[in-house]
Design a protein that fits this description.
The chain contains six helices and six strands, in the order E-H-E-E-E-H-H-H-E-E-H-H.
Length: 211
C-alpha cells in the first residue's frame, strides 16, 4: 500500500491535495506537536477584492502541545465569520449550492477538538473529490516507512513555489482575471465541481514533470 505521511489542516490548500494525490493511505499523527506556522487552524479563500485568510482561534496556544489536544476557542464568534465570508465569496459560484451543505455542519456545530474538525473536513473533501485514499492515525512513524513524508513541509514560513510540491493547473475562478493559485480546496470545489479531481490530477502530473 502506498502511504503518505501528512499533517492535518483546516480546509487544506491545493498544494496538499496535489502532494497526496495517488496515494492509497494518508497517515496522520495526532500526537505530533502543534507548530505555529502550520495550516492546522487556517485556510485562504478568494474574496471579491483580495485573498482572505480564515483562522480558527484555539485555547491554550503554546508550542509543546499534541495536536489532538488542541481545543477550539468558542468565546470568539469565528463560526459566523467563516460562514458569512465563505458565503459572500462563493455564493454565486457554479457549484456552491451543491457542495456547501456538506461543510455547513462543520461551521454551525463544530466539535470542540480542532483535530476532529479537520479530520472530518478532510474525509468529506476526499469523498467529494472522488479520491479513494483512506485516512489512518498513528502514534509515531516508527511502525512503518511511508513512500512520502510531507510532515512539516507545507507551512506559511515560505511560499509554495519553493517547495516543489505543487504546479498550478489554472481553472475558472469567480473574481478577477488573474488566476490565484493554491487556495483552499473550497475554491476549487465551488468553482469547478465534478471537474475538481481532474484539476488536482493535472497539477500532480505537472509537478512530476517539472522535477
Amino acid at each position: 500500500m502506498a502511504i503518505v505521511a501528512a499533517d492535518l489542516f483546516y480546509f487544506p490548500n491545493l498544494e496538499f491535495f496535489t502532494a497526496i494525490y495517488g496515494f492509497e493511505e494518508i497517515a496522520l499523527f495526532p500526537k505530533a506537536y502543534f507548530r505555529r506556522n502550520s495550516y492546522i487552524n487556517r485556510t485562504e479563500i478568494r474574496g471579491a477584492n483580495k485573498v482572505q485568510r480564515l483562522s480558527i482561534p484555539i485555547q491554550g496556544r503554546r508550542p509543546a502541545i499534541p495536536q489532538e489536544e488542541l481545543m477550539i476557542n468558542f468565546h470568539e464568534k469565528w463560526q459566523l465569520d467563516h460562514f458569512r465570508t465563505i458565503q459572500s465569496a462563493y455564493g454565486k459560484a457554479p457549484f456552491f449550492e451543491h457542495y456547501f451543505p456538506y461543510f455547513q455542519g462543520f461551521l454551525e456545530n463544530p466539535p470542540e477538538s480542532l483535530w476532529n474538525l479537520n479530520k472530518g473536513v478532510l474525509t468529506v473533501c476526499l469523498k467529494l473529490l472522488g479520491l479513494s485514499a483512506k485516512v489512518a492515525e498513528y502514534p509515531t512513524l516508527h511502525d512503518f516507512r511511508p513512500e512520502k513524508d510531507l510532515r512539516g513541509q507545507i507551512s506559511s514560513n515560505e511560499t509554495w513555489q519553493k517547495r516543489g510540491l505543487y504546479s498550478p493547473e489554472p481553472y475558472f475562478q469567480l473574481f478577477g482575471s488573474d488566476f490565484e493559485p493554491n487556495l483552499s480546496i473550497l475554491d476549487l470545489l465551488f468553482c469547478m465541481g465534478p471537474e475538481a479531481k481532474m484539476i488536482i490530477e493535472s497539477s500532480a502530473k505537472k509537478t512530476l514533470n517539472n522535477r
